[in-house]
């Protein structure tokens, strides 16, 4: 049985081009026209590979690497082997990511899973839908009446674009994802199985629970990425909004009327209750829970597995359950540990 390789390098990068991307000069005597053809971890890289290093855990791997060129932060530069070209820079991982995208552009966003161009056989596009030139629609996808999809976008197999939805240019909608009641900007990536625009959880509670119609929308701005099996509910009476450049991991729940600012990061397992606002550049670690009707201020960071039940001031770092400023949280943990240790010493010994 053959062993397929899913990501094969699409180009070569000269060492001069790597140095230009890094914004640093090549060491003296290095041929700028020599090229690398791939990228690999330190322990697997060979003479034709690009690697990077910025974590002390991999010091031994750096010292033994056979990589042709390594992007390395200053504190580890002395451990680069003589046979490896070292480019010393402040943020090697970010430069590595950009170069990896040049070597493997097909890995930057989902493409057609059928190898299709245009509308594939077995896709269902309503006559009243409008597709610009260069849209790809895989088999089994359904595009409803009045939907509009911009040039360069890819709609994966089994995906649903509901009536009246708007999908901008150069977007990728993954397999079996669904969009209803949604307006989406350009260069948005929606991974497989995501659900965007379905009912929010709204009921008037009583002896019997009366359903509250959810009549808002979901607005997804440019350059957002939404992970697999994430759900974003449409607004109840106003819009649920995801701001420009925000990155959302897999298995995240975003409830109705939530407003997420620009360039936020929301890691897997997060749940955000209704009508909460995340201002710009907020980071929520994995499995954070946020109750409804709160504001998490600009640039704040919430540690993984924390539960937020009150407003968070801008620029804060909070953690714990209930979440609090990290210094108070650490003091609390230290005090509890000391009390537990003291209690153990005080117990009678058999």
TrEMBL record:
The keyword Membrane does not apply. Pfam families: Hexapep, LpxD. GO terms for cellular component: membrane. Pathway: Bacterial outer membrane biogenesis; LPS lipid A biosynthesis. InterPro entries: Hexapep, Hexapep_transf_CS, LpxD, Trimer_LpxA-like_sf, UDP_GlcNAc_AcTrfase_non-rep. Its EC number is 2.3.1.191. The active site is at 256 (proton acceptor). GO terms for biological process: lipid A biosynthetic process. Residues 33-100 form the UDP-3-O-[3-hydroxymyristoyl] glucosamine N-acyltransferase non-repeat region domain. It comes from the Bacteria. PROSITE patterns: HEXAPEP_TRANSFERASES. It is an enzyme of class 2 (transferase). It catalyses: a UDP-3-O-[(3R)-3-hydroxyacyl]-alpha-D-glucosamine + a (3R)-hydroxyacyl-[ACP] = a UDP-2-N,3-O-bis[(3R)-3-hydroxyacyl]-alpha-D-glucosamine + holo-[ACP] + H(+). Residues 303-323 are annotated as: Disordered. GO terms for molecular function: N-acyltransferase activity; UDP-3-O-[(3R)-3-hydroxyacyl]-glucosamine N-acyltransferase activity. The keyword Lipid biosynthesis applies. Keywords: Acyltransferase, Lipid A biosynthesis, Lipid biosynthesis, Lipid metabolism, Repeat, Transferase. Belongs to the transferase hexapeptide repeat family. LpxD subfamily. HAMAP family: LpxD (MF_00523). Homotrimer. Catalyzes the N-acylation of UDP-3-O-acylglucosamine using 3-hydroxyacyl-ACP as the acyl donor. Is involved in the biosynthesis of lipid A, a phosphorylated glycolipid that anchors the lipopolysaccharide to the outer membrane of the cell. This is UDP-3-O-acylglucosamine N-acyltransferase. It comes from Methylobacterium gregans.
């Amino acid at each position: 049985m053959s062993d397929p390789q899913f990501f094969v390098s699409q180009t070569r990068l000269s060492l001069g081009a790597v140095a230009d991307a890094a914004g640093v000069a090549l060491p003296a005597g290095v041929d700028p026209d020599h090229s690398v053809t791939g990228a690999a971890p330190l322990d697997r890289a060979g003479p034709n590979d690009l690697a990077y290093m910025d974590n002390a855990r991999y010091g031994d791997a750096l010292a033994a690497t056979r990589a042709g060129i390594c992007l390395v932060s200053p504190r580890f530069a002395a451990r680069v082997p003589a046979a490896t070209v070292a480019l010393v820079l402040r943020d090697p991982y970010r430069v590595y990511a950009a170069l990896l995208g040049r070597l493997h552009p097909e890995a930057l966003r989902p493409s057609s899973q059928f190898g299709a161009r245009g509308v594939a056989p077995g896709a269902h596009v309503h006559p009243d839908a409008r597709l610009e030139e260069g849209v790809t629609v895989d088999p089994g996808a359904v595009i409803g009446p009045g939907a509009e999809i911009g040039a360069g976008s890819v709609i994966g197999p089994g995906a649903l674009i509901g009536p009246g939805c708007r999908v901008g240019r150069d977007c990728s909608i993954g397999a079996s994802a669904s969009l209803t009641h949604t307006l989406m900007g350009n260069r948005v990536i929606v991974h497989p199985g995501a659900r965007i625009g379905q009912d929010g959880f709204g009921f008037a509670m009583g002896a019997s629970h009366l359903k509250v119609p959810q009549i808002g929308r979901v607005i997804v701005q440019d350059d957002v990425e939404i992970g697999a099996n994430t759900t974003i509910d449409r607004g109840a009476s106003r819009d649920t909004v995801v701001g420009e450049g925000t990155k959302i991991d897999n298995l995240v729940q975003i409830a109705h009327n939530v407003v997420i600012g620009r360039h936020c990061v929301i890691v897997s397992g997060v749940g955000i209750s209704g009508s909460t606002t995340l201002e710009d550049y907020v980071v929520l670690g994995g499995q954070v829970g946020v109750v409804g009707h709160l504001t998490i201020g600009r640039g704040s960071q919430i540690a993984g597995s924390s539960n937020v039940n009150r407003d968070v001031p801008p620029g804060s770092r909070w953690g714990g359950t209930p979440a609090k400023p990290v210094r108070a949280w650490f003091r609390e943990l230290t005090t509890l540990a000391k009390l537990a240790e003291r209690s153990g010493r005080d117990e009678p010994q058999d």
